[in-house]
Amino acid sequence: MDDCLLRWNYTDIKSHIKNDKCPPNFDGFKCWPPILINTSVSLPCPPDLLIIENDVTFNDSVATRYCNTNFTWDAAQYAECLSNFAELYSSGMPILNHLKAMYYIYWIGYTVSLLVLLTSLAIFIKFRSLWCLRNIIHCNLILCFACHSATWIAYSTIVYEIIMKHFLYESVKYCFIATILLKYFVTAGFFWMFVEGLYLLVSVRFSFQTHNINYTMCASIGWAGGISAEICAS
Fold it and tell me: What is the pTM of this model?
């Protein structure tokens, strides 16, 4: 943000009010220049959103942003930039055929994993003779992996099947939610594996101390630990 202000020689962010302009603003992709209120500006799409393959380029695509009368910016519209992906996705370019094949392989793999994990979880739940702390920890780890697989399937469906194929860019917010959940379940999976190892260590090294371990302690590490890690990472 500071670099964006310096680029336009805005040392005082409030100085734009005198000129009836929105101040320069960096939204994570582009540095938007100061413009008059109640107007909009168009800039070339960010390089990350332009695909160049086999002399196919989209340099004419632009992103647009509107300056409100209260000197604030609306969210930038990158729909035209994202449509590049949709156009290429529906084309028959060889490299994209390989990417589609990889996508479907991943989708099938995650679907099979989800079904197997849910089956394993159902077996643990049905047979109560298996209910002990060790197997409860197993169940939580299985549940975490199942949620990870389900979240990836939801994420891929939103990105590839909804946004790219049908141009429903208002669904991008659901993509952000799915991404956060996906990262959380990946992190929580590592914490639950740590709980598995910790319980095994205590069982072998401190055999007479296992009664001091309860599910609340394990859940606070497995589930809450993932939340803490995500908060720290953000």
Answer: 0.61
